[in-house]
Amino acid sequence: MRTVTYVSNNTVEIVDKPIPEIEPDEVLVKIAGAGLCHSDLHLIAMGDDNPLIGGTLGHEGAGYVHEVGSAVTTWKVGDPVLVALVLSCGECRECLAGRDSQCLVASPRGALAPAAPGIGTPGNMAEYIAVKSHHLDPLDGLDPVDAAPLADAALTPMHAINTVRDRLTGDATVVVIGIGGLGHMGLQIIAATSGSRIIAVDTDPAKLAYAESHGAIAVPSGPDAAARILEETDGRGADVVIDFVGVQPTVDLSVAVIAQGGAIRFVGLGGGGFEYVAGIVEMPWGVNIERPYGGNRSDQREALALAKAGKIHVDVTHYPLDDAKRAFEDLHHGSIQGRIVLVP
Ligand SMILES: [Zn+2]
Ligand SMILES: [Zn+2]
User: What is the CA(37)–ligand 1 centre distance, in A?
Assistant: First the structure.
């Protein structure tokens, strides 16, 4: 089968590999669509001695059940399914507490990232993937090609938003930074599940126009952004900031506009940072900061319910799987609205 394989630093190729054999508790999924994420660009840019070299990429995938293992009773051939992002065990302390994105088996302390398709195990950018039957969610009513990005682009914002759910009151202001793959879903999830006011920040006028069309106040990135946001909030700052980019200017902006007692969620992995000083400093009192990863299966089911109800919609651009190299380049150059989906 054809796969998108990470062959050397910043380089992917279409590589032919055998169709995986399934274990009794596994399902073979025929991939209909595989999302391409900014994290994929980060993963393949970590040097020529990266242990992930040689692996099939793709942590967002959906398709149809093609074959079921002898012990599988929950799925039948032809079912449309979404492949989970975090390959959680379902049985450890964190999984049992509903914090399965922190699964102790999939994500032991110090791991670069929790075990996920395309990140240490074979990914979804292929014609087939073999997964444990409990790592699938039903997609009935959704087209698996366009639903594939829900595995990360909806899951991850859904989780970050659920960690600040109690702050999303009708009189709250939420700043969403970066209206790309994850941000455009985050914006829709906040709009669909809260009455909070949304301020969207991006460098791209087309992405700001998209945000405005979803009811957000658009603020262009730049030296005036912090002042604009403070003005919009009568000097108080934003109750919640979700930074889907994570480069230095967006981290600086997050810290500059957070309200006293507000919450920042750093989702984007752009390498920006700030120095934390335990003292009398400029950061307002009571600020809560979290570095969320992916999401729990409960977040995934909630995002799927919103998509099935038509309340959120992934904006997708299709590329043939064979054009993966071009897709990676186009994403790198930032010319994509929403999400690229590779179609085998
Ligand atoms: Zn991702
Ligand atoms: Zn677990």
Answer: 5
